[in-house]
## 1
Amino acid sequence: MNIHIPTPLRAYTGGLETVSVAGSTVGDVFQQLTVQYPELKPHLFTPEGKLRSFVNVYLNDDDIRYLPNKEETAANETDELTIIPSIAGGASCRP
Amino acid sequence: MLRIHYADYEALRAHGEETYPNECCGVLLGKNIAGEGNGAAAVNHVQQIVRAGNTRTDSAHNRYHIAPQELVKIQRQARGLGLDIVGFYHSHPDHPAQWSKTDFAEAHWLSCSYIITSVEQGKAVLTNSFLLSGTGEDNKNFEDEAIQIDIAEAAAHNQKGHA
C-alpha cells in the first residue's frame, strides 16, 4: 500500500513523498512504516504509543479514526494512506 | 526565505479582504529549494496558492482551521502538479500580522512558511511570513522570514496572457 508523506516528515523517509509498505490491516501498515523508517515514530506517536492528536491519517478519503473497524480495517494494495498534520490557528491568544 | 509571484501575493491579501471580518486561510504549493552556497537559507518557492474553507464557524473572526479532508485533496492536487505543500496563509482581521500563541501552538508543518496578513476595517495592510523551524514539537520556533515578490515575472506572465 502506498503511504503519502507530508512535506515536513520527508526528512525521515529519505526525501520520498510516497513510500510503499506491506501489511494486512491499516494498523499493520502504519506500524510497519515506523519499522522501515524508525525516525518517523516520535513525530507520529506520543511516548505512550498513541497517535499524536495533530496527526491525521486518511485511508483514501476517510479519517481512520472514524472507520467502523478503525486500525483493524483491511488494507488493500490499491488503497492509499495519507498522513496529514492539522492546520489551524488564528489571532485569538487562547490555543 | 519565501518567494512568491506578485499575483499570488495580491490574491492571498484579497482573500483576507473578502472574508473580513472573518479569517481566511489557504495553502501554498511550490517547491522547497535548498540554499546555494555556504550557510544559505532554503527558499520556499510558491508557484500556486489554493484557497481553503475556514471550518471554525463558531469563532471565524479570530480562529481558522482547514478540514484535514480538504488538505488531503489539496496534497493530492499538489502531487498531480509535481508540487509540494510549502506553507499556508491566513488573515488576522483587525489584529497585527504577527503570529499568536494559538498560531504557534497549532503549527506543526516544520520547514513550511506561515503567511499572516493583517486586515484592518476590511483593507489588507501588512503581510508577514514566518518559517516554522526546528526538528520537532519540543524545539519548534517561528522565525521572521523575508518575502521575495516576483514582480517582473508576474508582469511577463500578464503580457503573455494579453498577447
## 2
Amino acid sequence: MEKNGHATFLDEVASIPACDKINECIQCGVCSGSCTTAEHWEHPPRKVIAMVRAGMKDELLKSNSVWFCVSCYLCTARCPRDIKPANIMHGLESIALREGYKPPTSTTTMYRTFADSIVQYGRVYEFGMMFTYFLKTNPLAALRMLPMALSLLTHRRMPLTPKKVKGKDELNTILNKLASGGGR
Amino acid sequence: MEATGAPVEESIKAIAKPLDIELLELEDWTCCGSSPFSGVNKVKAVGITARVLAQAEKTGLDLVTPCSSCYTILREADDLIKDDHKLAEKVREALYAVGLSYNGTVKVRHIIEVIYHDIGPDNLALKVVRPLTGLKVACYHGCQQVRPDYGLDDSELPDWIDSLAKSLGAEPVNFPLKARCCGSSLVISESDLALDLIHKLLQNALDNGAQCMISTTCPLCHTALDAYQMLVNSKFKAGFNMPIIAITQLIGIALGLDFKAAALGGNIISPKKLLDPYFKAKPLAAKVESVTS
C-alpha cells in the first residue's frame, strides 16, 4: 500500500488530474523519440511510464528523470494513445516533492520558489524569485546571470519590488480550502 | 507580462486601437501557475487557474492572453473542470469560499489567434503604411502555442506568424525549428540545457538567412531568445546579435508606429539599425482608413 491510500504507485499517479490515461500506454517510444531533452534523462519518458507501471517508485523518483521536462508537449502532440506524457511527468514531480525525494537537480527548488512567489504575492515576483532561488541553491551561479539581469534592469524589465495584488488573499483562501479538502 | 514581458505587453496595447480590438485588463488577476505549479500540486494548480477563469467569466468577454503557457494552462484547467467531476467539486467549493463560481462559459484565446482569425492577414495587409519589404525573417512560433490539445495551427510546422509577417511585406525564410522549444521553463535551474536549445534556434534562423527572428507573443519565448542571447554568446563563444521582434511589435511598425510607440525600446538586442531604413522611408497611405486616422 502506498501513501495516500493508493494500492499501487500506478494508482497514485493515475489519480492525479490529467494523468489518468497512463494505463493506455503501448510503449511505442514516440515520446522518447520526440522529447526535446531526452538525452539528459537517466530514464527517458517511455521508460518512466514503464517504471511507474512496474512499481519502481524509489528508483524513478530518486533519478533526474521527469525534471528535465520543458513542457513543450511534443510527446503529447505525437502520442498515438493520447496519454499526455507531459502531464504525467509533472504529476510525478509533485509526488517526488511531496514525499521528500531528492533528485539531482535544482529544478525542485526552482519550482517551489516559483510556487511560493505566487502564494506570497499573487503573481510571480521575478527578481525576488531569482534571488531566493540562487540563495537556496548556488549563489555563485547567479554571477553568470548578472550581465543579463542588469540588462533587463536597465531596459526596465526587472522591477526590484513586487506588485501588490489584492487577489492574493482570495488566492490563498482557495489554496487552503483545496489543501483541507484532501487536494494535493 | 508586466516585468520581463513588458515590450510584448506594450506592443499589444499599442496595436489594439488601430486594429479595432478593445482590450480590458482583467481586474486583480493572479498568476495561472504555469507548469511549475503543476509540478508542485496539480489540484491546487487547477484551483488558482480557476480563480482567473471565474474572474473572467464575470466580465462576459473572451479571455485573451499573449503567453503560450497561460493559454495552455487556462485551456487545460477549463477542460479539467468540465470533465473531472471529483476535481470540479473540490474547485467549486474552494471558489465558493471566496464568493466566486465558474460555470465553464469563458472562451480562452491566444492573441495570435485573435489577430489571425478576427482580423486576418488580408485585412492586416490593407492597413500597412510601412511595408517591411526585403526584411528576411525567421518566424518563431514556439511550442505550447501550437501543441495539443489546444494548439493553434499545425503542431509540427505552423505558419500563422509567417502569414502575418508576409502580409506586412516581410520575407519569411525557411525555419525548420520554428515550433521547437526554447527551454525557458528551465533557463534558471538548468541553464546549460536551455542555452543549448536557444543556441540551436538562433543558429537555425541564421543559417537560413534570417536578419531577425519574429517571435510569438509569449513573454517567456521572447525573453529567452532576446535577453539570454548574451549568455548563449559566452557559452558558445558565438557572436549572435539577432534582434527578436515580437509579431505584435512588427505589426506596430508596419502600421506606422514609431520606434518607441511600437515598444521596441525594451528589446535587449536592439533592432534599431536593422529597422532604420524602414523608419526613414516615407509612409504610404493605408489602403483602408484606420480608426485613428
## 3
Amino acid sequence: MPEHLLSPGHTACAGCGQALAARLVIDTAGPNTIIVNNTGCLEVFTTAYPESAWEVPFIHSLFENAGAVASGVESALRQTGRLDQIRVIAQAGDGGTADIGLQALSGMWERGHDILSICYDNEAYMNTGIQRSGLTPTFTSTTTSPAGKASAGNPRPKKNVMEIALAHGIPYVASASAGFPMDLQKKVKKALAIRGPKYLHIHVPCPLGWRHEPADTYRVARLAVETGLFPMVEFEGGQQTGSYTLSAPKPVAEYLKLQGRFRHLFKPGAEAALQEIQAIADRNIARYGLAKPA
Amino acid sequence: MSININSRPGSARNNRTGSWRVDRRPKFLRQNCIACRLCLLICPEGIITGKAKNSFETDYVYCKGCGLCAAVCPKKDIEMIPEDTETEG
Amino acid sequence: MKDFIEGSDAVARAVALCRPGVISAYPITPQTHIVEFLASMVADGKLKSQFINVESEHSAASLVLGASAAGERVFSASSSQGLILMSEVLFNIAGMRMPVVLACVNRALSAPINIWNDQQDSMAVRDSGWIQLYAETGQECGDLIFQAYRLAESPEVRVPVMVCLDGYLLSHGLEVVDVPEAAEVDKFLPPYRPAEKLDPAAPMTFGPLAGPDYYLEIRHDLHAAMRGALKLIPSIAADFSRQFGRNSGGLIEGYRLEDAELAIVAAGSVCGTIKEAIDALRQEGVKAGLLRLITYRPFPEEAVSAALAGVGRVAVLDKAISLGATGPIYADLATALVHGKNQARVNGYIAGLGGRDITIETIREIFTRLSGEEVSAGFVGLKG
C-alpha cells in the first residue's frame, strides 16, 4: 500500500493549503474510500490525464454536481450492500459547495445519504483565477471584486454554509483548518464513523490568491482561527458540542496584513473597513461562545 | 483501438515536481528535532518521512521548495538554504 | 403477456425487467408516469432498485452517472426543459462512456412554455454523444428499452442510449403491448459487468482533465464507437426479432418504399399516420412511401441512401427545427443523399410543433406539395 493516498507529483502551487488538507483527509479516511470531486483546483491539479495522484477510486464529473454524483455512488453501494465497508466523500471548493453546487448538496443532505461532504474554502474561485465567490469575506480584493478608487473590495459577508447544513438536520457539521492538521484528522475520523450526511468545512489558505508567501500558509491559517474570523466549531445532532476557544483573540490586522488581498485596508481612509472586519470577528466569538475558557 | 479514458492510481508520481524549485530547498539539520511530526503533516506534497527524533527527511524529487516545513518546525531544526548548495540525501 | 397499457407503462415495465440497480426520478410532464409506475413497483417490493427522488433533472442525470460509474445498471427519464437542464450532464455521461439508458418523452421547448409533443428536446441534444432511438408504437417503447441496454453495455460500444417516445401520443396513448416474461428478457440481456468501475479493490480515476495533446483522440474514440454501433444495432434488432418473434428497432424501416416515387422521411409516432395516408394514396395510384428513421444518432447514411435509391422526390417531416436554419433530420438526410449520390430532390417540412396535430390531411398536403414544383420548404399548417 502506498505511503499516502494522495501521491506527490501533483501540480498544486507550492505551499497550497488545499493540497495539504486533501491529503490529510484521504489518508485519514483510508483506502476503502471513494472520492467524488467537483471541478476546481484540487481536481485539476491531481488528475491531468493520463496521470492521477489519487490512490483511491476517484470521479470528477462537473462543477456543481458532486452532491448528486456522490448520491449515485452511495446508492450503488447501498444496492450492493457495501456501504458498511466503503465510505463516500464528496469534495468541492467554494463554488462547488456554496454557490453553483449548493443545490446538489442540499438535495443530498435532505435525502440523508451516507456521505461526508467537504468544502475546501479558500474564499474565492481560485481555479479560474481568483474571482469572488459566496465565501469571499467582506472587503476582500478579488479580480471580480477588486479594490479600487470606488471600491473597498467585496462588499458582502461570507455565506454561512454550516448554518445551511444545520438547517437540513444532518448529524454532524464542523469546521476545520489547514493550520490545525491534527484537529482536522480527528474531525474526519469522527465524521466518517457517523452514518448519514456529514459536512466538514475546511479553511485552506491559497498563497497565490491570498497573496502571501507559500511558507506562510500554516501561520495564516492559524491566525484566521485565532482572530475569530474563521470559527472552528463542531455540531452533533444540531447542538454545538465543540469549539476552539480563544483566551486572547488576536486582532484581525495581524491576520490581514500578511495577505496582499487585504493590502488596500492598510491605506489611509480604510480604517472603517478594518473596524467592520474586527466587528465580524467579535460577532463570531460571541455567537459561537469562543471566548469562554475551555 | 479504444483509448482508456480513466487514469491509473498514483501515476502522478511520474511528474517530478522537484524541478519546480528555483532558489531554495529545505535542509533537515537533525540536531534538535523532537519528532513532533508537524513537518510531515504540513507538507502539501506529503513527501516528508521519518519516525524517531532527528530521522526526518524530504524527497527532493518532488519537493517544490515552499518552505512550510522550515516555517512550522518548533525547534527551527529545518533551514531553507540556497538550491545549489550540497545537501546529504 | 399482452396488456392494454400506455407507452409510459410499457417503458416502466421494460425497465423493471432489466433490473437496474439505481433509478433517479424527477417529474416533468409528460414523462412523469414512467417514474410513477417505477415508484409503485418499488413500493410494492416488485422491483428491488434504489429509487431516488432527486431535486432537479441536472441531479437526476448526475446521480445515474455516479451509480453507473460504481458499476450499476441505471435508468432515468425526462422531457423538454428537464432534458435541456440536464444537457450538460448528458455530454458528460457520453464523454465518460457510461452506458446510461434514458427515456426522453418528447415535448416542445420553452419559450413559450408548452407541454405537448414535438421532438425539439431530443433533437436539441443530438450532438451530445448519445445514441438516439425513436419509437413508433407503444410496443416499440418497451422493446427499445431492452435493446438500449444491450447496445449501451456492449463492450465495443459503451455509449449511453436515449429511447425517445412522443409525449402524450405514445406516453399516454393506450395500446395492446406484449410485455415479455423475465426469463425471456434475461436470455436477451446479460447482467451488466463493466471492465472498470469505482471500487477500492481496483482504484481508478474517472473524469480527468485532458489537454490538447489528448482530447482529440478521446473524442474521436467516442465518435468511432457510435459509428461502430451502426453495425451492432441491426444485429441486436435481429436477435430481438428471433427471440421475441416481432420486429422492433433497427436503423430504419421502409414502408412501401421499393417502388415509391415520392417518399416522406420521419421519426416517431407520426409514422403511423403517414403509413395510413400512404395506404390511401396508393389506392389512388400515387406511388408514395415512407422511410421511418428509428436510429437517428448515429445517423445511418448508408442505410438511408440505399433505401431511397430509386426515389425521385423526398420530403423530410421534422417535428423540430434548428431555428434560423432547417429541420435537423432534413440537414442530416440531405447530406446523406449528396454523399450517396442519390438523384432525389429533397424538401424539408416543419410540422407538429408544440403538439399541433398532424393528420392524414397534413400528410396528403405534404405529398401534394412534394409532387409539385416547390423546391425547398417550410412550416406546414401555419394559420392565417
## 4
Amino acid sequence: MTTAARPWAIKVEGLTKRYRLGVFDSNLRQSIAGMGKSLVRSLTGSGKAASAASEFWALRGVSFEIPRGEIVGLIGHNGAGKSTLLKILARITEPSEGTVQFVGKVGSLLEVGTGFHPELSGRDNVFLNGAILGMSHAEVARHFDRIVEFAGVEQFIDTPVKRYSSGMYMRLAFAVAAHLESDILLVDEVLAVGDGEFQKKCLQRISEMARDGRTVVFVSHNLAAVQALCPRAILLDKGLVLADGPTRDVLQTYLHRGRDGPMSRCEWGPAEAPANGVFRLRAARVESAEGDPLAPVDITKPFRITIEYERLKSGAGSVAIRLIDETGVLVFDLSNSTPDTGPAGFYRESCVVPGDLLNSGEYRVSVGLFDENEHMLEAQDAVAFDLMDSDRDRRGWYGKWEGVLRPTLAWTRERLADGA
Amino acid sequence: MSRAEQVTVIRPSRGWRSLQIGELLRHRDLMKFLIWRDMKVRYQQTLLGGLWAIIQPLGTTAAFTLVFGSLAKVPSDGIPYPLFSFTGLVIWTFFSQAVIGAVGSLIGSTQLVEKVYFPRLILPISAVLRGLPDLAIAFVCLIAAMIYYGVVPDWRMLWIVPLTLLAAIAATGVGCGLGAINVRFRDVRQGVPLLIQLWLFVTPVAYPASLAPHSWRPLLGLNPMSGVVEGYRWALLGGAPPSVMLMALSTASALVFLLVGLAVFRRMESSFADII
C-alpha cells in the first residue's frame, strides 16, 4: 500500500477501555468469595446492575486519525482518559473494544527514566534504558555521544546514577528517550522535567523530531506548550473526544468547560450550603472582569472573583479569599479591608484581580467568611480555573514561564557613558 | 526507516493467543540487558558475589551427606555420597532458583510493566537464563570435586547440555505459569518455597531413582527433574544409564509444563498492566 492510499500514521477507531473495579482482589480467598457473590447475584437476577456499578470507563468510543508528521496535543483534565489512551497507543495495556492502527515504530516517553538502576553508572543506564525503550545496542551506541552531550553529564557518565542530582538524573533519562529512532513518538508530561533551560531544549527537540517527519502525540497540562508545539489538539473529557481541531479552538472549549470537583463557578443549594451561625455561602465564581463567566482569561486580562452569601443576622463580618497555584503555593490570602456591617440579607461581594500580574497555570480559590469573633466559615478549593498564557514576550520559549508572578514592569534604560 | 510502511494493529485479544516469537527475538537486546543488569547489581552489592553460586549447593550437600549419607545410610549407586548428592544439587539449585526468580519476575518489575511495552515473556525467561552463569561456576566446583574423588569425565559429559536445556524448559514453564497467576494472586509467591521444598523430595537428588519401587518409576518420570538429575549423574559420574522410559517421560512432561505455562502466561498477559 502506498502512503497516498493511507493518509494516516495513527488511526484510532471506537476505542473503549473498561476497568473492572473491585473484581481483581489480589488474594485468592477474597476472589473465591467474590465469585460466590457474583454467582448469587446472577442467580437472583441482579447481576447486571452490580457489574455496571463496578466498572469504570476510562475511554468510551474514541476515534481519530493523525496524519504522518503531525504534532497533536492531547489535553483534558485529570481522569479524562489521556493516560489510558497513551498507554493503549504504547501497547502497555489492551483496549476493551475498538482498534488502533499505526504505521512504523512507536516510541514512548511516558515516564522518563523507567528501568534506571541507581547502582549502575550513567553509561550502563543509557544502554539499559535504551534497550527498555526498544532501541538496539547498535542504535544506542550510535547516539551515545549525542545523548551524553544533550544531558550535559559528560564528567559523571561513569558515576553510579544514585550519586546524580535529581536534575542530572532526569536530564540523562530524557536524553536517551529523545534519541529514539521511532516513526511515532508519544510524549507525556516531560516538561515537568529539569530546569527552564533544559525544558526549552526538550521542546526544541520535540519540534525537531516532528520536522523530521515523525508523528508526535503530546500530552501536557502546559497549555502554552501545547499551543506553541501543536497545530492540532484533541480534548478528552470523561473518556470522550469533546473537541478535535485547531489548537486555539480546542483550547477555548477546554477553558470554557468546568471540571468535576471544583468548577470555575460553584453554587450551593440552601440545604448543602456551607454555613455557620452568621453566614451561609451560596456561590463563588471566577469570571472575566466584565462578568462574562465563559470568556477565557489570559494573564494579560483582569478577572473577577465573586462570592454570594446570606447573612443570617446583622453584625460585623468580613470576606476573605485565598488563591493557591498548581504547585500548592499560596499566592495571596486577603480579606476586604473594611469589615462589613449590615442587616441580614443576601449579599454579593466581588473583587478584581488585575491583569499582567499572575503567571499562567491552574489556580484554586478558597473562600472564607469571618464573623465578628473571627470565627471562620471556609469553603476550601471552592473554585478552580486556568489562567492561560498569552503570546506576549515569548521569545521562542514555549515552556511554562518560571515564577509565581509574571507582572508587566515598567523598565527604564539610560545610557550612562559612551562605550569604548 | 525500512519498517515505516509496516502497519501494526492493536485490538482486544480474547482467549488463547500465539507466542509471538518474532517479537521476542526483536527484543533480545532487552533480554540481554536485563540479565546483565541483575548480575552486575548482584555482584556489586554482595560481598561474596559469585561464590554464592557454590555456597548454596555445597551447604546443602554437607547437610544431605550428614543426614542421608551418614545417618540414614541412603545408597548412592556406588558413588561417594557427597559427590552423588552434589551433582544432583548443582542442577537442582539452577532449577529452583530459576523457578523462584521467574515467579517473582513480573511483580519485581512493576514499573517496567506499567510504563513500557515489550513482550512480557522476556521477564520470566531472563530470570531463568540469569541462573546459567551461576550454574557454570558451580560446575567448575563440581569438576574439582570429581577430580578429588578420582572420577574422570568422558564424552558423555556433553549430555549435560541437552539436560540443562530440559531443566530450563521445565523451569520456564512452571515459572511463567505461576508468575502470571502471581500477578493477580500474590498467594502464589508465598506457596512457591513450599512447592520447591516438596519438589526436591520427590526428585532423586538425595537418593537414587533405583531406590524407588519399579511400579513407581513411571510416576517418577512425570517429574521432569527426575530425568534431568539422573541424566546428570550418568553423564558425569558414569554407572548404568537412566532408563529410556524415564528420560522420555521426563522430556515429555517438561514440554507439557512449558506449553501449559506459556499458554497461561499469554492468556493473562493482557491484564498485567491493569492489575499489577
